[in-house]
Design a protein that fits this description.
Strand content: 15-25%
Number of helices: 17
Distance between the termini: 14 Å
Shape: flat
Number of strands: 13
Oligomer: single chain
Helix content: 40-55%
Largest sheet: 7 strands, mixed
Strand order of the largest sheet: 3-4-5-6-2-1-7
Radius of gyration: 29 Å
């Protein structure tokens, strides 16, 4: 991505017959010039920064009216990109806003690439790299908790501890290099003190790294598959859990023929719940396809809810499904749901058989909304959300940041080994520089163009 010239893009979602306002955003040295060509503000309105003008957008050659609109002016450096930025606030829909974008391009702007507005904000010092990534996280948030963490990152609460770690490494490096350059003029280096300082940085670094799991869950959520033989209440469980009628429920086995999805939030973590077709041998071609999809859903899920009928108990088919799922789960977890316990005498519920290898068990009566809270508590325990939630709520690093911090940790651990093995001071500086560079990758002090391309290509256009 090149930061030169003026860019334009539609900055709002465009849905036919929905959305009352559509925004076209421009940023760059020609933004004001292009705006004056296209926008006509009647009366004596003043074209100054941080003003909203009312007027009309017209085709510069034909004079044809395109839209009645507002124009928002934000001159450099008091703008999102620290360049001149103008926004045309048009009527929502498709036609008018696309015509306005086309006029901007014909007047000299070019279509922005994904994330290019935020990239310019980073390159111009308006945001550091953690803040820029938090912008994308905020746009893509699937739960209030994810949005709060993204806002904390946008406010610099992730960058601050990383900068402190990097500053600590730089101080140690300066102390060592001073001994290399001015060995005769300075007292001997206190190796024990240097080791303690590196150890202290490693402890703080490990605390930040520990938030990677939470960040992964907040950004990507959990995929949970409800599986079992036909007519055990899987669809009823989904309906009770989602408080909706997402799935058709009947007394007929095989009602669910395909995977039904529902989006929920458990403990602040977005959860994609998949209600699958009942698994059984069948000659029905459509149902057979549904069974195959059920098996694939279980294989791809982070967590499987194996559901059985409490009244019927553990059947031979339940055992077959369990063995199939157990072999496919890999690193996923399994919770056994004993459903329909409202049809079983209370004293008999505890005597229901299931394999001893299953450790997580929840009893439910989905038709009566019974056991849902216990199910959510079991999910939190199964995926270790309890520890995740106990971490610093302001920090939740992403995969890229975790990879860079891991490299920094390895470099610092190598530095301690270098000190322990009494190697020359030059070797100490090599490891410290590696840690400093890796920490700089997180905030953007040291980052390559290919990394920037990879980060900002995941943004939406117009952001």
């Amino acid at each position: 991505m090149t930061p030169g010239n003026t860019i334009a893009a539609i900055a709002t979602a465009i849905v036919p017959q929905q959305g009352s306002v559509g925004i076209v955003r421009m940023s760059g040295s020609e933004a004001m010039k292009i705006a004056k060509i296209l926008f006509h503000a009647p009366g004596k309105q003043v074209w100054e920064t941080h003003r909203i003008l009312y007027g009309y957008i017209r085709h510069p050659q034909t004079g044809q009216l395109v839209d009645e609109a507002l124009l928002l002016i934000m001159k450099a450096p008091r703008s999102y990109t620290r360049e001149d930025v103008v926004e045309f606030h048009c009527h929502g829909g498709i036609i008018a806003i696309q015509e306005v974008l086309q006029l901007c391009i014909e007047a000299g702007a070019r279509l922005a690439q994904p994330g290019e507005f935020t990239l310019r904000a980073f390159l111009n010092g308006r945001l550091d790299l953690t803040q820029a990534e938090s912008v994308a996280d905020l746009v893509g948030s699937q739960s209030p908790a994810a949005a709060q963490v993204a806002l904390a990152g946008l406010q610099g609460k992730l960058a601050s501890p990383i900068r402190q770690l990097r500053a600590g490494c730089l101080d140690i490096l300066a102390e060592i290099e001073a001994r290399i350059d001015f060995e005769e003029d300075l007292p001997p280096l206190n190796e024990s003190e240097i080791s303690q300082k590196v150890d202290s940085i490693l402890v703080d670094l490990s605390r930040v790294l520990a938030t990677a799991s939470r960040g992964e869950l907040l950004r990507n959520g959990l995929k949970v598959a409800i599986i079992g033989r036909p007519n055990v209440g899987k669809s009823s469980l989904l309906n009770a859990w989602s408080r909706s009628d997402r799935a058709i429920v009947t007394d007929l086995p095989g009602t669910t023929r395909d995977v039904v999805e529902s989006q929920l939030v458990v403990g602040g973590i977005p959860v994609q719940v998949l209600d699958t077709a009942g698994i059984r041998e069948t000659e029905d071609r459509v149902e057979k396809i549904g069974v195959e999809r059920s098996c694939r859903a279980a294989e791809s899920a982070d967590l499987v809810l194996l559901t059985i009928d409490g009244k019927a108990g553990w059947t031979e088919l339940d055992e077959v499904i369990y063995q199939q799922v157990k072999n496919r789960l890999k690193n996923s977890s399994l919770i056994l749901i004993i459903n329909k316990v409202d049809l079983v005498q209370q004293e008999l519920i505890k005597s229901i058989y299931y394999p001893e290898t299953i450790k997580n068990v929840v009893t439910t009566a989905a038709i009566n909304n019974q056991g849902i809270e216990e199910l959510e508590a079991a999910i939190i325990d199964a995926v270790n959300l309890g520890n995740v939630q106990a971490e610093n709520l302001d920090l939740a690093i992403n995969q890229r940041q975790a990879a860079a911090l891991t490299r920094a940790k390895v470099a610092l651990e190598q530095c301690l080994n270098t000190i322990k093995n009494n190697l020359p001071l030059d070797f100490w500086t090599i490891d410290l520089r590696g840690a400093i560079y890796a920490l700089g990758e997180v905030t953007g002090e040291d980052v390559t163009e290919s990394v920037l391309d990879r980060i900002f290509s995941r943004f939406c256009i117009g952001k």
